[in-house]
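FAQ

Q: What does a record look like?
A: Structure on top, sequence underneath. For example:
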């Protein structure tokens, strides 16, 4: 019977996790993060509500695995290339004088957060709410990457200077508090005094990193990564379990091993398809079980029996606000009050590490069940309030003046015509060539601003800021040199790299590094085949009066409208809709969504009219 009750409870939790996002979509509650909604549903079906879920081995194991996988994906989410100092443009009306260095500003803000959190923690200790100031400091200073990242993406701020700064603050907070939580366990846990053993865990991480770096591009690994073997996915799960086991062995929390595994995989630049599979498995199965169970285990009604806990909840919420908003005032040197206030508020959101710290504190006897529930409840409240206030402050962050910055390395008959035809309002181009290249001086002087180089030495080009751009096009006359430049650009964190190579082996190597390959031979062959099989498509791509255009859907007036009901009439045909990573073939029942990228064709006059209509932002 006990086994049957355990399975029944698991089914209830799975169904709850399944219907939660459906309900959010149905009632248009997109402003609430899914993880918070899952906790709320857990409250309804758990001890605080109908109490229809019983604890059992199934739920305990899957919930623990969900937490471990959440920490792994949090580590995987970190893009270490953002630690490179790169010049990005921020929205002029939000930015003051000069563009701050995101790494320097983020580090300074986090130091301020930690110092204020430590001071506030001693106040809580003096007030008798908790005995350990170290644990309280970690609870107050932590920031939820899982809430910050999707909020910034939704506001279209990931590519702005302030967006990078907010993200870096969250990343640093996640890394530091995660490591300090492991140190806390080693000091105050039952097997205290083994802090130095953490070095073994990090040494193992370094070893696994170099092993992965050596074997990731081996031909036999790429062969076994397909079909029923999926060796890359097996390697990831093996790494997670090895580091989790090692973490527990040295006396640290298992989540530190999982987080370390995620950072290692991120450093190895994993295949995007594999990352998508891991996300699907984690957020589609294990992680929802964990968050629903967080809600199930909270007994809200018991919190009202302790007046001390009732006083703690608002005080802790205020402490979280003060610890984030006050250090964020540093940003007022470069940004206006709206930006500073919004940034401080979104940094207040905290969840996963508070849950971990509360669980550890309860296990070590530092807090009781009521205090644990209060801490988790405050964390949930921050995740509800912070994104809502942030969106209210910012609306939708649109950087109208932002241009995609492109460096063309190699100025020749392949690149110059392309530069001439790029939209100057959307692209900022920089052309580079060596003094020995033969380029018509009249073209160079009259039409293009071409910067001369002594040679294509990547280190010297780095000093000149060639790689501080959004896109690199490597198209010199030497494909080996192009490949070298492309590899270096990727190492420098350039988001998109296009390289001109002809040989199949070099082309495959570039594709494995997620570098776009341009080949004169393959392009000519594809164009000739298209002219034979689909001449009308070629006409659309090559004729200016019937070209393809991209329009970004920013006008909320048309959000959710079906194409058949779309009031705009004109000589325009919608060819494709890109929504996130999805590519949608439009038809009458297709709904337009905010953030959609529409690929259309038609006369330039009507396209511009449609563009003005859809790209108009009501918050601008």
């Amino acid at each position: 019977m006990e086994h049957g009750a355990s399975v029944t409870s698991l089914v209830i939790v799975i169904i709850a996790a399944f219907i939660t996002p459906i309900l959010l979509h149905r009632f248009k509650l997109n402003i609430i993060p899914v993880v918070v909604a899952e906790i709320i549903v857990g409250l309804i079906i758990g001890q605080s509500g109908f109490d229809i879920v019983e604890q059992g081995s199934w739920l305990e194991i899957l919930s623990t695995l969900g937490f471990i996988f959440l920490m792994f994906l949090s580590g995987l989410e970190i893009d270490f290339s953002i630690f490179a100092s790169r010049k990005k443009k921020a929205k002029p009306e939000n930015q003051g004088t000069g563009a701050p260095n995101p790494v320097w500003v983020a580090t300074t803000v986090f130091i301020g957060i930690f110092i204020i959190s430590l001071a506030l923690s001693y106040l809580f200790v003096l007030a008798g709410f908790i005995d350990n100031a170290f644990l309280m400091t970690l609870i107050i200073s932590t920031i939820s990457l899982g809430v910050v990242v999707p909020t910034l993406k939704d506001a279209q701020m990931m590519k702005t200077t302030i967006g990078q700064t907010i993200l870096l603050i969250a990343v640093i907070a996640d890394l530091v508090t995660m490591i300090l939580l492991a140190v806390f366990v080693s000091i105050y846990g039952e097997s205290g005094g083994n802090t130095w053993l953490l070095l073994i865990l990090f040494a193992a991480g370094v070893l696994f990193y170099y092993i992965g770096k050596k074997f990731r591009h081996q031909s036999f690994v790429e062969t076994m990564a397909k079909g029923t073997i999926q060796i890359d996915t097996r390697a990831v799960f093996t790494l997670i379990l090895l580091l989790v086991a090692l973490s527990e062995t040295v006396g640290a929390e298992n989540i530190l091993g999982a987080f370390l595994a995620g950072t290692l995989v991120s450093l190895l630049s994993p295949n995007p398809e594999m990352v998508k599979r891991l996300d699907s498995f984690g957020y589609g199965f294990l992680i929802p079980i964990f968050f629903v169970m967080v809600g199930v285990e909270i007994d809200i009604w018991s919190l009202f029996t302790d007046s001390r806990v009732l006083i703690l909840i608002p005080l802790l919420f205020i402490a979280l606000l003060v610890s984030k908003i006050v250090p964020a005032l540093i940003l007022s040197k470069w940004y206006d009050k709206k930006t500073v206030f919004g940034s401080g508020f979104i940094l207040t959101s905290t969840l996963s590490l508070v849950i971990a710290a509360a669980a550890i504190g309860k296990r070590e006897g530092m807090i009781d069940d009521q205090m644990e529930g209060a801490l988790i409840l405050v964390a949930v409240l921050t995740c509800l309030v912070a994104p809502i206030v942030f969106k209210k402050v910012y609306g939708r962050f649109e950087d109208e003046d932002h241009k995609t910055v492109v460096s063309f390395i190699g100025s020749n008959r392949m690149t110059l015509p392309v530069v001439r035809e790029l939209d100057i309002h959307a692209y900022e181009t920089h052309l580079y060539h060596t003094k020995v290249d033969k380029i018509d001086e009249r073209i160079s002087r009259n039409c293009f601003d071409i910067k001369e180089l002594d040679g294509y030495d990547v280190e010297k080009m780095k000093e000149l800021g060639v790689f501080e751009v959004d896109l690199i096009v490597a198209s010199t006359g030497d494909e080996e040199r192009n490949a070298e430049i492309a590899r270096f650009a990727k190492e420098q964190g350039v988001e998109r790299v296009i390289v001109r190579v002809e040989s199949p082996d070099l082309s495959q190597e570039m594709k494995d590094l997620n570098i776009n390959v341009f080949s004169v031979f393959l392009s000519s062959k594809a164009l000739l085949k298209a002219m034979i099989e689909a001449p009308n498509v070629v006409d659309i791509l090559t004729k200016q009066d019937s070209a393809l255009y991209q329009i970004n859907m920013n006008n909320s007036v048309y959000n959710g409208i079906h194409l058949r009901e779309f009031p705009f009439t004109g000589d325009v045909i919608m060819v494709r809709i890109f929504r996130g990573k999805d590519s949608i073939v439009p038809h009458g029942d297709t709904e337009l969504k905010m953030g959609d990228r529409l690929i259309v064709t038609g006369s330039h006059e009507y396209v511009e009219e449609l563009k003005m209509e859809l790209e108009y932002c009501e918050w601008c």
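Q: Is there anything notable about this one?
A: Residues 85-97, 396-401, 436-446 have pLDDT under 50 and may be disordered.
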